[in-house]
Amino acid sequence: MTKPLLSVSNLVAGYGDIQILWGMDLEVGEGEAVCLVGSNGAGKSTLLRTLSGLLRARSGRVEFRGEDITNLPPKQILSRGIVHVPEGRRLFGPMNVVDNLLTGAYLRSDKAQIKRDLDHMLTLFPILAERRHQATVTLSGGEQQMCAIARGIMSAPKLLMIDELSLGLAPKVVDSLGAALRQIMHDGLSLLLVEQDVATAFELTSRGVVVDSGKVRISGPTADLAVNPMVQQAYMGLA
């Protein structure tokens, strides 16, 4: 049996005296797109922060490509191919679009491939090519999200983790982002998506994990979860 790309076992984490994750288990396969859905405060963002090394796990184990990476520093986790696009984008506002994208490749030394990847990002997101010399602080929210995702891809990840893809964005922009992500995933990139809009999450991914109070409550193919009465009532506003 093929080992998963990412394997999370009994992960416990929190902030100070407050425990958020209570034994999380999760797997993401090679080339797979998985979404994490749940209410605010369920632990979704905390999980991504723990996986990317921004928050230390109190116990449990994280394996990536068969290697134990639990509590490695963020730079080492990034170098292994896990990229975290955080909620709020966290771009360098005064810097222009191209310079922001190039910061994503700061651990890389393959200059020719970096140039090819930059050209690919500007082709994938044409509006960024138009805005390439603008400071990112002047971009719209959707354009900033495109820039944040493109910057993450410039790191040449094997697993891209996106926290709240559609937050505050118009449906047309979300559709454009979704189309770009499908193209990227077609090239073999794995995706772990945190998304408040459950319908969007299910549309973009093949498998879903419902998180509640720091634990996995139910998981399975998104096509099945979309017609699950509990999921429909609790997270999709359907009776």
TrEMBL record:
Provenance organism: Rhodopseudomonas palustris
Keywords: Amino-acid transport, ATP-binding, Nucleotide-binding, Transport
ABC transporter domain boundaries: 6-238
Pfam families to which the protein is assigned, alphabetical: ABC_tran
Name of this chain's protein: ABC transporter ATP-binding protein
Top-level taxon of the source organism: Bacteria
Protein family per UniProt: Belongs to the ABC transporter superfamily.
SUPFAM superfamilies in the record: P-loop containing nucleoside triphosphate hydrolases
Transferase recorded as keyword: no
Role played: Involved in beta-(1-->2)glucan export. Transmembrane domains (TMD) form a pore in the inner membrane and the ATP-binding domain (NBD) is responsible for energy generation.
InterPro entries: AAA+_ATPase, ABC_transporter-like_ATP-bd, BCAA_Transport_ATP-bd_LivF, P-loop_NTPase
A GO MF term: ATP binding
GO biological process, one term: L-amino acid transport
Keyword Cytoplasm included in the entry's annotation: no
